[in-house]
Amino acid sequence: MKRKQMTYETFLEVKRQKSLGVSQRQTAINLGLSRGMLERWWHKEEAEFLSSRSHQPKSLEQYREYILSVLKVYPQIRATNMYFKLTEQFSDFNCKRSTFFRFFSKLLKETGYIKYRERMISPRSQLPPGYEAQVDFGQYKLKDMYGQTVRVYFFCMVLTYSQMRFVYFSPNPFTTQTSIYAHELAFKFFNGRTQTIMYDLDRVFVLNENYGDIVFIKEFEDYVRETGFSTVICRPRDPQTKGRVENLIGYVKYSFLEGRTYNGIDALNSACLQWLDNEGNGLVNAKTRRIPREMFYEEARHLIPVKATIPKEQVILSVTSKNCIRYKGNEYALPKGKLKEKERVRVEERDNNIFIYQALTNEFLLKHAIPTGEGNTVSIEENYYDSVSVERIKRIFGDDDRIDSYIKGIKDNRYINTQCKQIYHLINYYSETQMMSAIEHCLRVNICNTTELAAYLIYKFGASKSKRCFSKEKLIFYSKRAQKIKEELDG
Protein backbone atom coordinates (compact mmCIF):
# COMPACT_ATOMS: atom_id res chain seq x y z
CA MET A 1 0.00 0.00 0.00
CA LYS A 2 1.32 3.43 -0.94
CA ARG A 3 2.15 5.54 2.14
CA LYS A 4 1.10 9.18 2.49
CA GLN A 5 3.51 12.09 2.68
CA MET A 6 3.81 14.14 5.87
CA THR A 7 1.87 17.28 4.99
CA TYR A 8 1.03 20.06 7.41
CA GLU A 9 -2.56 18.79 7.79
CA THR A 10 -1.30 15.25 8.46
CA PHE A 11 1.15 16.58 11.09
CA LEU A 12 -1.68 18.38 12.93
CA GLU A 13 -3.73 15.14 12.91
CA VAL A 14 -0.75 13.24 14.34
CA LYS A 15 -0.49 15.74 17.20
CA ARG A 16 -4.26 15.50 17.82
CA GLN A 17 -4.26 11.69 18.04
CA LYS A 18 -1.18 11.78 20.26
CA SER A 19 -3.00 14.12 22.65
CA LEU A 20 -5.89 11.63 22.79
CA GLY A 21 -3.49 8.88 23.86
CA VAL A 22 -3.51 6.89 20.61
CA SER A 23 -0.35 4.79 20.21
CA GLN A 24 2.22 5.33 17.45
CA ARG A 25 1.35 2.03 15.81
CA GLN A 26 -2.38 2.76 15.70
CA THR A 27 -1.82 6.34 14.57
CA ALA A 28 0.34 5.12 11.67
CA ILE A 29 -2.43 2.69 10.67
CA ASN A 30 -5.15 5.34 10.99
CA LEU A 31 -3.29 7.92 8.85
CA GLY A 32 -1.60 5.55 6.40
CA LEU A 33 1.92 6.59 7.42
CA SER A 34 5.03 4.49 7.70
CA ARG A 35 6.33 3.83 11.25
CA GLY A 36 9.67 5.42 10.39
CA MET A 37 8.09 8.67 9.24
CA LEU A 38 5.76 8.79 12.22
CA GLU A 39 8.62 8.26 14.68
CA ARG A 40 10.54 11.10 12.99
CA TRP A 41 7.75 13.61 13.72
CA TRP A 42 6.13 12.11 16.83
CA HIS A 43 8.07 14.24 19.33
CA LYS A 44 8.49 17.35 17.10
CA GLU A 45 6.71 20.64 17.75
CA GLU A 46 4.73 22.59 15.15
CA ALA A 47 7.41 25.30 14.84
CA GLU A 48 10.07 22.69 14.07
CA PHE A 49 7.88 21.16 11.36
CA LEU A 50 7.21 24.51 9.68
CA SER A 51 10.89 25.45 9.84
CA SER A 52 11.97 22.20 8.20
CA ARG A 53 9.36 22.50 5.44
CA SER A 54 10.49 26.03 4.49
CA HIS A 55 13.87 24.66 3.35
CA GLN A 56 12.37 21.90 1.19
CA PRO A 57 11.61 22.38 -2.51
CA LYS A 58 8.19 23.84 -3.22
CA SER A 59 5.50 21.51 -4.48
CA LEU A 60 5.04 21.23 -8.23
CA GLU A 61 1.34 21.78 -7.68
CA GLN A 62 1.98 25.52 -7.61
CA TYR A 63 2.88 25.33 -11.31
CA ARG A 64 -0.17 23.25 -12.18
CA GLU A 65 -2.30 26.14 -13.48
CA TYR A 66 0.51 27.48 -15.66
CA ILE A 67 1.16 24.03 -17.14
CA LEU A 68 -2.53 23.57 -17.86
CA SER A 69 -2.70 26.97 -19.56
CA VAL A 70 0.10 25.88 -21.89
CA LEU A 71 -1.51 22.49 -22.51
CA LYS A 72 -4.74 24.17 -23.60
CA VAL A 73 -2.88 25.88 -26.44
CA TYR A 74 -0.25 23.18 -27.14
CA PRO A 75 -1.76 19.85 -26.01
CA GLN A 76 1.10 17.80 -27.52
CA ILE A 77 3.97 19.68 -25.88
CA ARG A 78 6.73 17.42 -24.61
CA ALA A 79 7.88 17.16 -21.02
CA THR A 80 11.38 18.41 -21.93
CA ASN A 81 9.98 21.53 -23.55
CA MET A 82 7.64 22.19 -20.62
CA TYR A 83 10.54 21.78 -18.19
CA PHE A 84 12.59 24.29 -20.18
CA LYS A 85 9.66 26.76 -20.28
CA LEU A 86 9.30 26.58 -16.49
CA THR A 87 13.00 27.32 -15.99
CA GLU A 88 12.60 30.37 -18.25
CA GLN A 89 9.38 31.66 -16.69
CA PHE A 90 10.04 31.01 -12.97
CA SER A 91 13.39 31.90 -11.41
CA ASP A 92 12.58 29.88 -8.28
CA PHE A 93 11.80 26.70 -10.20
CA ASN A 94 14.20 24.04 -8.94
CA CYS A 95 13.24 20.43 -9.52
CA LYS A 96 14.92 17.25 -10.71
CA ARG A 97 14.01 16.30 -14.26
CA SER A 98 12.91 12.80 -13.27
CA THR A 99 10.61 14.21 -10.57
CA PHE A 100 9.06 16.70 -12.98
CA PHE A 101 8.64 14.09 -15.73
CA ARG A 102 6.70 11.85 -13.33
CA PHE A 103 4.52 14.78 -12.26
CA PHE A 104 3.92 15.85 -15.88
CA SER A 105 3.06 12.30 -16.96
CA LYS A 106 0.58 12.01 -14.11
CA LEU A 107 -0.92 15.38 -15.03
CA LEU A 108 -1.35 14.30 -18.66
CA LYS A 109 -3.24 11.18 -17.57
CA GLU A 110 -5.46 13.17 -15.21
CA THR A 111 -6.33 15.80 -17.82
CA GLY A 112 -6.64 13.37 -20.74
CA TYR A 113 -4.13 15.06 -23.03
CA ILE A 114 -2.61 12.71 -25.62
CA LYS A 115 1.13 12.31 -25.61
CA TYR A 116 2.95 12.84 -28.90
CA ARG A 117 4.18 9.61 -30.52
CA GLU A 118 7.29 9.51 -32.64
CA ARG A 119 7.52 7.45 -35.79
CA MET A 120 9.76 4.39 -35.72
CA ILE A 121 12.88 4.20 -37.86
CA SER A 122 15.53 1.58 -38.50
CA PRO A 123 18.97 1.98 -36.90
CA ARG A 124 22.04 3.00 -38.91
CA SER A 125 25.63 1.92 -38.32
CA GLN A 126 27.92 4.34 -36.48
CA LEU A 127 30.36 6.33 -38.62
CA PRO A 128 33.83 7.46 -37.50
CA PRO A 129 34.26 10.93 -35.93
CA GLY A 130 34.61 13.84 -38.33
CA TYR A 131 33.32 11.89 -41.31
CA GLU A 132 29.72 12.99 -41.85
CA ALA A 133 27.21 15.74 -41.04
CA GLN A 134 23.56 15.94 -42.06
CA VAL A 135 21.65 19.05 -43.15
CA ASP A 136 17.95 19.76 -43.49
CA PHE A 137 15.42 22.60 -43.25
CA GLY A 138 12.24 23.08 -41.26
CA GLN A 139 9.54 25.66 -40.72
CA TYR A 140 7.08 26.39 -37.96
CA LYS A 141 4.24 28.78 -37.13
CA LEU A 142 4.50 30.83 -33.93
CA LYS A 143 2.28 33.40 -32.29
CA ASP A 144 3.68 36.84 -31.57
CA MET A 145 2.77 39.00 -28.56
CA TYR A 146 -0.25 40.37 -30.46
CA GLY A 147 -1.62 36.94 -31.29
CA GLN A 148 -0.63 37.13 -34.95
CA THR A 149 0.74 34.04 -36.70
CA VAL A 150 4.40 34.27 -37.79
CA ARG A 151 6.10 31.60 -39.86
CA VAL A 152 9.81 31.03 -39.18
CA TYR A 153 12.28 28.92 -41.15
CA PHE A 154 15.28 27.12 -39.71
CA PHE A 155 18.44 25.39 -40.90
CA CYS A 156 19.72 22.34 -39.01
CA MET A 157 23.11 20.62 -39.09
CA VAL A 158 24.01 17.65 -36.89
CA LEU A 159 27.32 15.80 -36.67
CA THR A 160 26.57 12.12 -37.20
CA TYR A 161 29.13 10.74 -34.74
CA SER A 162 28.73 12.98 -31.70
CA GLN A 163 25.12 14.13 -32.36
CA MET A 164 26.33 17.73 -31.79
CA ARG A 165 23.62 20.05 -33.17
CA PHE A 166 23.38 23.52 -34.69
CA VAL A 167 20.22 25.48 -35.58
CA TYR A 168 19.84 28.85 -37.33
CA PHE A 169 16.51 30.68 -37.78
CA SER A 170 15.48 33.00 -40.62
CA PRO A 171 12.30 35.08 -41.08
CA ASN A 172 12.30 34.25 -44.82
CA PRO A 173 12.51 30.99 -46.78
CA PHE A 174 16.10 29.91 -47.33
CA THR A 175 17.69 30.64 -50.68
CA THR A 176 20.94 29.24 -52.01
CA GLN A 177 22.89 32.23 -50.72
CA THR A 178 21.32 32.32 -47.26
CA SER A 179 21.81 28.55 -47.01
CA ILE A 180 25.51 29.01 -47.74
CA TYR A 181 25.60 31.67 -45.03
CA ALA A 182 23.98 29.20 -42.61
CA HIS A 183 26.74 26.70 -43.49
CA GLU A 184 29.32 29.33 -42.59
CA LEU A 185 27.67 29.88 -39.21
CA ALA A 186 27.55 26.12 -38.57
CA PHE A 187 31.23 25.66 -39.44
CA LYS A 188 32.07 28.55 -37.13
CA PHE A 189 29.94 26.99 -34.36
CA PHE A 190 31.69 23.61 -34.74
CA ASN A 191 35.06 25.23 -35.48
CA GLY A 192 35.46 23.06 -38.58
CA ARG A 193 33.66 20.81 -41.06
CA THR A 194 33.27 17.09 -41.68
CA GLN A 195 34.54 15.23 -44.74
CA THR A 196 31.05 14.74 -46.18
CA ILE A 197 27.66 16.41 -45.72
CA MET A 198 24.37 14.67 -46.48
CA TYR A 199 21.42 16.51 -48.10
CA ASP A 200 18.12 15.58 -49.66
CA LEU A 201 16.83 16.87 -53.00
CA ASP A 202 16.21 20.38 -51.72
CA ARG A 203 15.59 23.06 -54.33
CA VAL A 204 18.09 25.49 -52.79
CA PHE A 205 20.90 23.01 -53.55
CA VAL A 206 19.76 20.76 -56.40
CA LEU A 207 18.74 22.12 -59.79
CA ASN A 208 17.80 18.79 -61.34
CA GLU A 209 17.98 15.06 -60.69
CA ASN A 210 17.66 12.29 -63.24
CA TYR A 211 17.99 8.75 -61.90
CA GLY A 212 20.86 9.64 -59.61
CA ASP A 213 22.51 12.19 -61.92
CA ILE A 214 22.53 15.28 -59.66
CA VAL A 215 22.87 18.80 -61.07
CA PHE A 216 23.63 21.35 -58.33
CA ILE A 217 22.81 25.04 -58.45
CA LYS A 218 25.98 26.71 -59.68
CA GLU A 219 26.42 28.99 -56.66
CA PHE A 220 26.21 26.06 -54.25
CA GLU A 221 28.43 23.90 -56.46
CA ASP A 222 31.11 26.61 -56.45
CA TYR A 223 30.87 26.87 -52.67
CA VAL A 224 31.25 23.10 -52.22
CA ARG A 225 34.27 23.06 -54.53
CA GLU A 226 35.88 26.01 -52.73
CA THR A 227 35.21 24.65 -49.23
CA GLY A 228 36.31 21.13 -50.13
CA PHE A 229 33.74 18.80 -48.58
CA SER A 230 31.97 15.97 -50.39
CA THR A 231 28.19 15.78 -50.79
CA VAL A 232 25.84 12.84 -50.42
CA ILE A 233 22.26 13.17 -51.71
CA CYS A 234 19.41 11.02 -50.41
CA ARG A 235 15.66 11.01 -50.88
CA PRO A 236 13.52 13.45 -48.86
CA ARG A 237 12.03 12.19 -45.59
CA ASP A 238 14.32 9.19 -45.46
CA PRO A 239 14.82 8.28 -41.75
CA GLN A 240 16.83 5.20 -42.63
CA THR A 241 19.57 7.37 -44.17
CA LYS A 242 19.41 10.77 -42.48
CA GLY A 243 17.24 10.13 -39.47
CA ARG A 244 19.53 12.12 -37.16
CA VAL A 245 18.78 15.46 -38.76
CA GLU A 246 15.10 14.60 -39.28
CA ASN A 247 14.87 13.81 -35.57
CA LEU A 248 16.50 17.19 -34.90
CA ILE A 249 13.81 18.92 -36.98
CA GLY A 250 11.12 17.38 -34.79
CA TYR A 251 13.16 18.03 -31.65
CA VAL A 252 13.39 21.74 -32.48
CA LYS A 253 9.68 21.97 -33.28
CA TYR A 254 8.28 20.13 -30.27
CA SER A 255 10.94 20.69 -27.62
CA PHE A 256 11.91 24.29 -28.37
CA LEU A 257 9.39 26.10 -30.57
CA GLU A 258 6.15 24.64 -29.32
CA GLY A 259 4.56 26.99 -26.80
CA ARG A 260 7.04 29.82 -27.49
CA THR A 261 6.05 33.41 -28.24
CA TYR A 262 7.77 35.07 -31.19
CA ASN A 263 9.70 38.19 -30.10
CA GLY A 264 11.86 38.72 -33.19
CA ILE A 265 14.30 36.58 -35.13
CA ASP A 266 17.39 37.72 -33.20
CA ALA A 267 15.76 36.85 -29.87
CA LEU A 268 14.76 33.46 -31.28
CA ASN A 269 18.31 32.66 -32.43
CA SER A 270 19.72 33.76 -29.09
CA ALA A 271 17.23 31.64 -27.15
CA CYS A 272 17.95 28.67 -29.40
CA LEU A 273 21.69 28.84 -28.72
CA GLN A 274 20.95 28.79 -25.01
CA TRP A 275 18.55 25.87 -25.51
CA LEU A 276 21.18 23.97 -27.50
CA ASP A 277 23.71 24.53 -24.75
CA ASN A 278 21.38 23.39 -21.97
CA GLU A 279 19.18 20.84 -23.72
CA GLY A 280 20.08 19.86 -27.28
CA ASN A 281 23.81 19.35 -26.73
CA GLY A 282 23.87 19.11 -22.95
CA LEU A 283 21.67 16.09 -22.20
CA VAL A 284 22.37 12.39 -22.55
CA ASN A 285 21.51 11.20 -26.07
CA ALA A 286 19.04 8.31 -26.17
CA LYS A 287 21.04 6.46 -28.84
CA THR A 288 24.67 6.96 -27.78
CA ARG A 289 23.91 7.11 -24.03
CA ARG A 290 26.41 9.93 -23.82
CA ILE A 291 26.23 13.73 -23.79
CA PRO A 292 26.83 15.15 -27.32
CA ARG A 293 29.05 17.93 -25.97
CA GLU A 294 31.35 15.37 -24.34
CA MET A 295 31.51 13.24 -27.50
CA PHE A 296 32.24 16.40 -29.50
CA TYR A 297 35.52 16.85 -27.61
CA GLU A 298 36.67 13.66 -29.33
CA GLU A 299 35.19 14.51 -32.74
CA ALA A 300 36.49 18.10 -32.80
CA ARG A 301 40.04 16.84 -33.34
CA HIS A 302 38.93 15.24 -36.63
CA LEU A 303 37.13 18.28 -38.08
CA ILE A 304 38.75 20.21 -40.94
CA PRO A 305 39.23 24.00 -40.49
CA VAL A 306 37.21 26.21 -42.84
CA LYS A 307 38.15 29.68 -43.98
CA ALA A 308 35.07 31.89 -43.90
CA THR A 309 34.03 33.12 -47.34
CA ILE A 310 31.24 35.40 -46.12
CA PRO A 311 32.88 38.18 -44.07
CA LYS A 312 29.79 39.40 -42.25
CA GLU A 313 26.08 38.82 -41.94
CA GLN A 314 23.80 40.29 -44.55
CA VAL A 315 21.34 42.97 -43.46
CA ILE A 316 17.59 42.56 -43.99
CA LEU A 317 15.67 45.85 -44.33
CA SER A 318 12.08 46.87 -45.05
CA VAL A 319 10.97 49.14 -47.89
CA THR A 320 9.66 52.51 -46.64
CA SER A 321 6.62 54.39 -47.91
CA LYS A 322 8.99 56.50 -50.07
CA ASN A 323 10.08 53.37 -52.00
CA CYS A 324 13.55 53.43 -50.51
CA ILE A 325 15.57 51.84 -47.71
CA ARG A 326 17.51 53.40 -44.83
CA TYR A 327 20.99 52.00 -44.37
CA LYS A 328 23.67 53.43 -42.05
CA GLY A 329 22.19 56.91 -41.92
CA ASN A 330 21.44 57.27 -45.64
CA GLU A 331 18.40 56.70 -47.85
CA TYR A 332 18.72 54.65 -51.06
CA ALA A 333 16.04 54.74 -53.76
CA LEU A 334 14.61 51.52 -55.22
CA PRO A 335 13.18 50.79 -58.70
CA LYS A 336 9.65 52.10 -59.08
CA GLY A 337 6.86 49.56 -59.08
CA LYS A 338 9.14 46.66 -58.20
CA LEU A 339 8.56 46.42 -54.45
CA LYS A 340 5.71 47.11 -52.06
CA GLU A 341 5.89 49.03 -48.81
CA LYS A 342 7.28 46.96 -45.89
CA GLU A 343 8.56 44.27 -48.28
CA ARG A 344 11.96 42.96 -47.24
CA VAL A 345 15.23 43.39 -49.12
CA ARG A 346 18.71 42.08 -48.36
CA VAL A 347 21.69 44.46 -48.45
CA GLU A 348 25.33 43.48 -48.94
CA GLU A 349 28.19 45.96 -48.69
CA ARG A 350 31.23 45.41 -50.94
CA ASP A 351 33.90 47.72 -52.43
CA ASN A 352 32.23 50.92 -51.18
CA ASN A 353 28.94 49.90 -52.85
CA ILE A 354 25.76 48.34 -51.53
CA PHE A 355 24.06 45.56 -53.49
CA ILE A 356 20.33 45.21 -52.93
CA TYR A 357 18.48 41.90 -53.40
CA GLN A 358 14.85 40.96 -52.96
CA ALA A 359 14.90 38.90 -49.75
CA LEU A 360 12.22 36.39 -50.72
CA THR A 361 13.39 35.52 -54.25
CA ASN A 362 17.06 36.52 -53.89
CA GLU A 363 16.83 38.49 -57.17
CA PHE A 364 19.34 41.28 -57.66
CA LEU A 365 17.68 44.71 -57.79
CA LEU A 366 20.44 47.31 -58.14
CA LYS A 367 23.59 48.69 -56.60
CA HIS A 368 24.35 52.14 -55.17
CA ALA A 369 27.64 53.83 -54.43
CA ILE A 370 27.94 54.64 -50.72
CA PRO A 371 28.14 58.44 -50.25
CA THR A 372 30.41 60.21 -47.79
CA GLY A 373 28.87 60.99 -44.42
CA GLU A 374 25.28 60.51 -43.31
CA GLY A 375 21.92 62.09 -44.05
CA ASN A 376 22.24 61.65 -47.83
CA THR A 377 19.49 60.58 -50.23
CA VAL A 378 20.89 58.45 -53.07
CA SER A 379 18.54 58.48 -56.06
CA ILE A 380 18.48 56.33 -59.17
CA GLU A 381 20.18 57.75 -62.23
CA GLU A 382 17.94 58.94 -65.06
CA ASN A 383 19.35 56.39 -67.51
CA TYR A 384 18.84 53.54 -65.05
CA TYR A 385 16.92 50.54 -66.32
CA ASP A 386 15.55 47.62 -64.36
CA SER A 387 18.59 45.36 -64.18
CA VAL A 388 16.53 42.49 -62.81
CA SER A 389 14.66 41.99 -66.08
CA VAL A 390 17.77 42.55 -68.19
CA GLU A 391 19.81 40.10 -66.13
CA ARG A 392 17.04 37.54 -66.37
CA ILE A 393 17.05 37.81 -70.16
CA LYS A 394 20.85 37.53 -70.27
CA ARG A 395 20.77 34.39 -68.14
CA ILE A 396 18.49 32.77 -70.73
CA PHE A 397 20.37 33.81 -73.88
CA GLY A 398 23.85 33.79 -72.36
CA ASP A 399 26.56 36.39 -72.95
CA ASP A 400 25.42 37.53 -76.41
CA ASP A 401 26.29 40.96 -77.82
CA ARG A 402 23.06 40.98 -79.82
CA ILE A 403 21.03 41.16 -76.60
CA ASP A 404 23.05 44.17 -75.41
CA SER A 405 22.65 45.86 -78.80
CA TYR A 406 18.88 45.27 -78.77
CA ILE A 407 18.52 46.75 -75.28
CA LYS A 408 20.66 49.77 -76.19
CA GLY A 409 18.53 50.21 -79.33
CA ILE A 410 15.35 50.79 -77.35
CA LYS A 411 14.54 54.45 -77.86
CA ASP A 412 13.18 55.31 -74.41
CA ASN A 413 14.91 53.89 -71.36
CA ARG A 414 11.69 54.17 -69.38
CA TYR A 415 10.23 51.22 -71.31
CA ILE A 416 13.19 48.86 -71.11
CA ASN A 417 11.62 46.94 -68.24
CA THR A 418 8.35 46.52 -70.18
CA GLN A 419 10.24 45.40 -73.28
CA CYS A 420 12.22 42.82 -71.30
CA LYS A 421 9.08 41.45 -69.70
CA GLN A 422 7.56 41.00 -73.17
CA ILE A 423 10.65 39.13 -74.37
CA TYR A 424 10.50 36.94 -71.28
CA HIS A 425 6.84 36.21 -72.09
CA LEU A 426 7.64 35.27 -75.70
CA ILE A 427 10.41 32.86 -74.60
CA ASN A 428 7.70 30.60 -73.18
CA TYR A 429 6.29 30.06 -76.70
CA TYR A 430 9.24 30.43 -79.06
CA SER A 431 12.62 28.71 -79.00
CA GLU A 432 15.88 30.54 -78.36
CA THR A 433 16.84 30.24 -82.03
CA GLN A 434 13.52 31.68 -83.18
CA MET A 435 13.80 34.56 -80.73
CA MET A 436 17.35 35.36 -81.83
CA SER A 437 16.28 35.48 -85.49
CA ALA A 438 13.62 38.06 -84.57
CA ILE A 439 16.15 40.11 -82.56
CA GLU A 440 18.55 40.06 -85.53
CA HIS A 441 15.77 41.40 -87.75
CA CYS A 442 15.12 44.26 -85.30
CA LEU A 443 18.81 45.15 -85.34
CA ARG A 444 18.94 45.07 -89.17
CA VAL A 445 16.04 47.50 -89.54
CA ASN A 446 17.07 49.48 -86.42
CA ILE A 447 13.63 49.12 -84.83
CA CYS A 448 14.05 47.64 -81.37
CA ASN A 449 10.63 47.24 -79.78
CA THR A 450 8.18 44.47 -79.01
CA THR A 451 5.88 45.39 -81.89
CA GLU A 452 8.59 44.74 -84.47
CA LEU A 453 9.76 41.65 -82.57
CA ALA A 454 6.29 40.09 -82.34
CA ALA A 455 5.39 41.04 -85.94
CA TYR A 456 8.50 39.30 -87.29
CA LEU A 457 7.71 36.15 -85.27
CA ILE A 458 4.20 36.11 -86.77
CA TYR A 459 5.61 36.63 -90.28
CA LYS A 460 8.33 34.00 -89.92
CA PHE A 461 6.60 31.25 -87.94
CA GLY A 462 2.92 31.77 -88.68
CA ALA A 463 -0.06 33.17 -86.81
CA SER A 464 -1.23 29.84 -85.36
CA LYS A 465 1.52 29.76 -82.71
CA SER A 466 1.09 33.45 -81.87
CA LYS A 467 -2.58 32.91 -80.96
CA ARG A 468 -1.44 31.22 -77.77
CA CYS A 469 0.70 34.10 -76.48
CA PHE A 470 -1.15 37.27 -77.66
CA SER A 471 -4.59 38.62 -76.91
CA LYS A 472 -7.01 39.03 -79.82
CA GLU A 473 -6.49 42.79 -79.98
CA LYS A 474 -2.68 42.56 -79.92
CA LEU A 475 -2.69 39.77 -82.48
CA ILE A 476 -4.65 41.95 -84.95
CA PHE A 477 -2.27 44.88 -84.32
CA TYR A 478 0.91 42.79 -84.71
CA SER A 479 -0.46 40.97 -87.77
CA LYS A 480 -0.83 44.26 -89.65
CA ARG A 481 2.85 44.99 -89.12
CA ALA A 482 3.71 41.37 -90.03
CA GLN A 483 1.99 41.84 -93.38
CA LYS A 484 4.11 44.93 -94.05
CA ILE A 485 7.27 43.03 -93.15
CA LYS A 486 6.29 40.32 -95.60
CA GLU A 487 5.85 42.91 -98.35
CA GLU A 488 9.21 44.51 -97.52
CA LEU A 489 11.17 41.24 -97.43
CA ASP A 490 9.35 39.09 -100.00
CA GLY A 491 8.21 41.84 -102.33
Descriptive notes:
There is one protein chain. The protein has 491 residues and is of the alpha/beta class. It folds into 5 domains: 47 residues; 52 residues, no CATH class; 171 residues, Nucleotidyltransferase, domain 5; 64 residues, no CATH class; 104 residues, no CATH class. Helices cover 45% and strands 17% of the residues. The protein is built from 19 helices and 15 strands. Strands 1, 2, 3, 4, 7 and 8 form a 6-stranded mixed sheet that branches. A 4-stranded antiparallel sheet has the order 9-12-13-14, with no helix packed on it. A hairpin with a 2-residue loop joins strand 5 and strand 6. Helix 14 packs across helix 16. The longest helix is centred in the middle third of the chain and has 19 residues. It is elongated, with a radius of gyration of 34 Å. The termini are far apart.
> Which CATH top level class of the largest domain fits?
Alpha Beta
The count of helical stretches stands at 19
Taking Cα atoms only, what radius of gyration do you get, to the nearest Å? 34 Å
Biggest sheet details: 6 strands, mixed
First-residue to last-residue Cα separation: 111 Å
Number of strands: 15
Q: What value does the average pLDDT take?
A: 81
Roughly what percent helix? Answer: 40-55%
Count the domains. 5
- Content of β-strand: 15-25%
CATH topology type of the largest domain: Nucleotidyltransferase, domain 5
> Which geometry do the CA atoms define?
elongated
Q: Stretches where pLDDT falls below 50 for ≥5 residues?
A: none
CATH-level-2 architecture of the largest domain: 2-Layer Sandwich
Helix and strand composition category: alpha/beta
